[in-house]
Amino acid sequence: MRKMKGALFVVLLMMVFTSACSSGSSSSEQSSEEGTIKIGVLASMTGALESYGKQTTRGFELGLDYATDGTREIDGRKIEFIIEDTETKAEVAVQKATKLLEQDQVDFLVGSSSSVDTLAVVPLAEEYKKIFVVEPAVADSITGSEFNKYVFRTARNSSQDAVAGAAAIAKKGVKIATFAPDNSFGHDGITAFKEAAEKLGATITHEEFADPAGTDFTSNIQKIINAKPDYLFVVWAGANSPWNQISDMKVQDKGITISTGAPDIAALKTMKPLVGMEGFSVYYHDLPNNEVNDWLVKEHKDRFNGELPDLFTPGGMSAAISIVEALKKTENSTDSDKLIEAMEGMSFETPKGMMTFRKEDHQALQTLYSIKLENKKGVDYPVPVLIRELSPKETAPPIRNK
Prior knowledge:
The chain is 41% helix and 21% strand. Strand 10, helix 9 and strand 11 (278-281) form a beta-alpha-beta unit. It starts with a helix and ends in a 12-residue tail after the last strand. The strands form 3 sheets. It has a 7-stranded mixed β-sheet, sandwiched between helices. Strands 2-3-1-4-5-6 form a 6-stranded mixed β-sheet, with helices on both faces. It is built from 12 helices and 16 strands. It has helices at 2-34, 50-67, 90-102, 115-128, 158-169, 184-199, 218-227, 243-248, 265-268, 291-303, 313-329, 336-343; strands at 37-43, 73-74, 77-85, 108-111, 131-134, 151-153, 175-181, 203-210, 231-234, 257-262, 278-281, 347-350, 353-357, 364-365, 368-374, 383-390. The protein has 402 residues and is of the alpha/beta class. It folds into 2 domains: 35-156 and 287-366, Rossmann fold (3-Layer(aba) Sandwich), CATH 3.40.50; 159-281 and 370-390, Response regulator (Rossmann fold), CATH 3.40.50.2300. Helix 2 (50-67) packs across helix 10, helix 2 packs parallel to helix 11 (313-329) and helix 3 (90-102) runs parallel beside helix 4.
C-alpha cells in the first residue's frame, strides 16, 4: 500500500510538472499575440546630440498617444516603451540595443540620434529578427549598402535633404562649394547633394570636410573662400556649428551665398548672420498645414510648459504612428515577417503629411520644405518661412540598397 501511494504521488507530481511546462510553453508561443508590446527606443539622451534625443523621445511618446487615442493600447494589448541612452557612442548603442533585445525582450527597436550609432545596431535587427524603425539618423547607407529587411526608416535620409538643398540653389553655370563633418553623415550628405546639384547643371568646385567634434574651422573656411564659389552649401548637425566663424570671416561679404538646411531652434539662434539665406527645412512647427501637426503643436505646448515641437519631434511621432499602424494591419501580431509584409508600401498620416515606406528599401517618402530665413517680430532667432512644399515624389531619393 505504501509503495502504491508513493507511486501515485510520483505520477501526480509528474502531471503537475508537465502541466506547468506545457502552460509556460503555450504562454511563450502566444506572447507575440497576447502579451504587452514592448518597444526599445535608442536615443542620445546625453552627449553632443542630447537635444535630438530629447526631441525624438518626446515625439515618440506623443505619437503613441495620438495613434491610440491616449490609451497606449491596441485591442486590449498594452504598449510600453523603454528609452536607453546611447551616449552618442556606437559601442554603447550596441550594448543598450542588446540589453533591450535580450533582457527586456522588446518587439521593436527605434532610433537613434546618430548615424554612427544606428549603423552599429542595424546588424542586430537582422540577427534578432526584430523590426528596427530608424529615427532620426540620416546616413544613406542605413537604407542603402547596410540595409537589411528588418530596417524601416521614418527619418528622411541624406539624399532627400540633398534633393531639397539642390532645388533651392543649383542651376546651370552655378559654382558651389560644400562643407560638412568628416563622418558618414557628412560624406553621404555631400555625395547626394553633389549628384542632385550636378543633374541641375551646377558645378561643385570644392569639397571641405572637418572634424565632427571640432570647434575651430578657420582653415576649412579659408580654403572655401579661396575656391571663390557662388554658393557655400553646408551640411552640419550638433551644437558645434560653424555659423559664427563663417560670419566672423565675412564669407557672405566676399560674394559667397550661404545655403543649408534650417536646423533646430537652438541652432537657429546662432544663424542671425544668415538672415536671407535660402535653403530647406525638414520641419518647423508652422510649415506643415494638417490636422496631425495642429494636434502635435497644441499637445506639445500643453505638456511641456509651452515649448514648441522642434526639428526631430515630428520624426519621433511618425515612428510611433508607423508602429501602431503596422500592428493594426497585422491584427496585433509582432511576428516580423507579418510586419514586414504590412509595412512595405504602407502609407500613414504624420505631422508632415502622408509618409509611405517605399517597398524597395523601406525609406519613408515624405514632404520637405523650401524656405528662406527671415526675422520675425517677437522671435529671437531667424524663422524658416515657406517658399514652397517639396512633395514626397519630388524629394524621393535614389534607391541605394542594390
